[in-house]
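A student in our group prepared the protein record below, which I am reviewing. What it holds is a sequence and that sequence's fold in token form. My question to you is simply how this chain folds and whether the tokens agree. Do not assume that whoever made the record got everything right. I have pasted the whole thing underneath without changing anything:
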Amino acid sequence: MLVLSAAGFHFRGKNALTVTKGDPDAVSDNEDLGPEATAEGREAALRAYPLTPDELPIDVTLNAQRAFASIKARASSGGGAWQLIGPSKATYPGVLNFLGDHDQYVASGRVTALAIGPTCTPNDCILYLGAAGGGLWRTTKALSGDNANWQFISSSFATNAIGTITVDANDPTGRTVYAGTGEPNASGDSEAGMGIYKSTNGGDAWTLLPGSITPPSNFQGRSISSIVIAPNGDILAGIARGIRGYSGNTGGATSNPPPSTAPAAFGVYRSSNGGASFTLIWDVTLISVRGVNHVAIDPITPTTIYAAAFNAGVWRSTNNGVTFTQIKSALNPALNTDRAEFAVNALANGKTRMYVGVGNSSNAGANRARFYRTDDAAGAAVFTDMTTPQNIGYCTAQCWYDNAVVSPAGHPDVVYLAGSFDYDSNGAASNGRAVLLSTDGGATFTDSTQDGDPNHAEAIHPDQHALVLNPNDPLQMFEGSDGGIVRTDGGFADVSYKCDSRGLNPADTALCKSLLSRVPDQIVHLNNGLSTLQFNSISVSSQRPKNNAQAGTQDNGTFQYTGSPTVWWQEIYGDGGQSGFNAADDSLRFNTFFGQASDVNFHNGDATKWVVATGPIVSSPEGSNFYPPIIADPNPTRAGTIFQGSQSVWRTQDWGGDQA
């Protein structure tokens, strides 16, 4: 529900704390501040001494992984053994599901990649899912109710950060799969990867492609945004920036691997020998500070290659990668958050259609996200601006993070725009516009964010990252967001009558009716069994350390562990930063959304009993880290004391006030 911001927060409506996600890399990109500009950065510098954080070689990460593996191998089944304590059913209570049908549902962590097999039937539909920090998962039951029976299949990977998944269309069985590691979505928690993996048996076993970790194509410390397999078997890979290690706070060390590790330059790479080696065919280092975010080949002429790079628009090569030429400019090249996403499809006349959605970190004026189309992408590539009130600003001010354009092969008139979530128009002129669908070549769109239940419509979680379609039905989607994965049923309903009761002016009523004239009949959450929540922190009760803990998560709020390795209940929605318990009475606790916004609870985490505790800090002129340090005094004799760190240290000695 919540999206990152370093700038501020405010309430919209009576329930939702909503914010605008600022650019988590902004501080890291500012070399004047340096890596020690924050407390987190100074701590990193101390750990790195005598090197600086920017100089730490990737070998440090690899050595840490080997050390942990050694400790794990030596651990007996007794005290030293690690156990997964969940959750595999991260459950939102109905009272906190205010965007959907107000019933409880199961969520999961941020989905960054999806890929579907070549066939999809009720009894056999293979779907692969990649998570920001939860690894790679597979189900063969993607159409079976809401219990997909997910399997974790990337235990052999050197990282759980997944950037892209590709099923090789050259293999008719659909069992050849590539996984690119490292998330390319430019957020402060978009963790860098460790290369490209390949499976020839549907994910049962994997091989790390040696060329993906060998200079000059060392993708360790980078993020893989796209993997495309050409008809001749060539592998094309798009390389973008990632964050070295995970950090819940912006600032800290920059995300560039040090030169001593010979990191791959940002750009498009090709392997013609099955991944034994890769060659850079498009170097974007001089035009993009974030790298390539999308790669595709022409559906008619595979020697024509398309690629998009942050703040550089869309480019094309008509000579199999020898040279590239820009065919669609960035919306605002001065912003390194400017991201163009595109989709290509073959037309009946033998030409190629391309759809482009582009925006950046602003949702105002000329920077509002726009939508374009050309019906000759491989030729003249003249784009028509098809931006309308239905689709303008579809990714709000988060296009660098939430942006996907998908057009299913063989259906060039069908196009999906997946963006963030339009809180301003939700429940008014739209249902949130998180996912928009057009079946007339982008001329008109409808809103697929809520389903057609007349009274209690289910909804898609904000912040969209991945979308694939049933190969047998271009109107049935599987969609991944910060809140996990959903599936639609492929049917539609007209709920435009809902607009009549929203108190809109005539223009907004007309817009609302057009958007709600076709919504999914049913949206189904497929998160049951996925242990992929991206945790930011954990706090443990002094009274019940084995079965009472709280944990803050990325965009899924704060959850409570009470001993079940399966079900954890969400205590409070939003972003989840630091949390804590009263040392003498664990019915008293606190949470953090982000920044200086923390609540306290005097009723065992009852989701309806949270009260704002940090108003004086929020109203002060001080700034803070994205997730600032906040801790309860561990001394039971001072159990009402909480310390919070902004630019000063703040203290309450009565648990935020007498609000019991």
